[in-house]
């Protein structure tokens, strides 16, 4: 169970703060809900307490795991490429990964889209997914590491620039 003021992650929405736990009547039955304010867009979500785990609501990662994720971004061995896949199929695949809410899935999407963008222009939807993935991962890592989101985003961009330079040699 989450508590008020706790930072949590809601899949595809990002980091939020539990502002309240409230009871509301829905369909004749009273249910408890977490009131979660999403940090990057100030939106509010009502998440059923009983169903929170099923919808993917989770605590933010710890600092150690955040460092592991940053380190994993330097390893491109899991890149499978886009041969034979059109942008629409990739878009659906990446959207599904972002909906899982798992930080490693978000990192995977970001890595693939950045690498693909080095070879060809991304579609509008893919560019939007890349921006979404960058926002999701940089915000969670910033919260986990007690840093500014812009600072973490610059570090991630630096990682990709370094890796791409190595691959050009």
Structure, explained:
The protein has 2 domains: 7-59, Thrombin, subunit H (Beta Barrel), CATH 2.40.10.170; 63-168, Methane Monooxygenase Hydroxylase, Chain G, domain 1 (Up-down Bundle), CATH 1.20.58.1290. Helix content is 49%, strand content 20%. It contains 5 helices and 5 strands, in the order βββββααααα. α4 packs across α5. The longest helix has 22 residues, at 124-145.
Total of helices: 5
- What would you give as the CATH superfamily of the largest domain? CarD-like, C-terminal domain
Task: Please tell me the overall pLDDT.
Answer: 88
Q: Largest sheet at a glance?
A: 5 strands, antiparallel
- Give the CA-CA distance, first to last residue: 50 Å
**Count of the domains:** 2
Low-confidence stretches: none
Broad structural category = alpha+beta
Helix content: 40-55%
> H/E series, N to C?
EEEEEHHHHH
CATH topology of the largest domain: Methane Monooxygenase Hydroxylase, Chain G, domain 1
Number of strands: 5
CATH architecture of the largest domain: Up-down Bundle
Indicate the overall shape.
globular
Rg, rounded, reads: 18 Å
Strand order of the largest sheet: 4-3-2-1-5
- So what's the CATH class of the largest domain? Mainly Alpha
Strand content: 15-25%
């Amino acid at each position: 169970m989450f508590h008020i003021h706790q930072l949590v992650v809601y899949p595809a929405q990002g980091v939020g703060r539990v502002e309240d736990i409230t009871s509301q009547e829905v369909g004749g039955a009273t249910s408890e809900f977490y009131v979660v304010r999403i940090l990057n867009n100030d939106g509010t979500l009502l998440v059923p307490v009983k169903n929170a785990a099923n919808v993917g609501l989770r605590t933010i990662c710890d600092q150690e795991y955040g460092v592991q994720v940053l380190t994993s971004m330097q390893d491109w061995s899991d890149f499978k490429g886009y041969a034979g896949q059109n942008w629409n199929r990739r878009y659906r695949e990446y959207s599904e990964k972002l909906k899982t809410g798992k930080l490693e899935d978000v990192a995977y999407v970001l890595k693939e889209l950045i690498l693909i963008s080095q070879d060809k222009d991304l579609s509008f939807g893919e560019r939007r997914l890349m921006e979404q993935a960058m926002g999701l991962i940089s915000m969670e890592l910033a919260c986990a590491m007690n840093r500014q989101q812009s600072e973490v985003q610059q570090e991630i961009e630096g990682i990709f620039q370094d890796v791409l330079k190595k691959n050009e040699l």
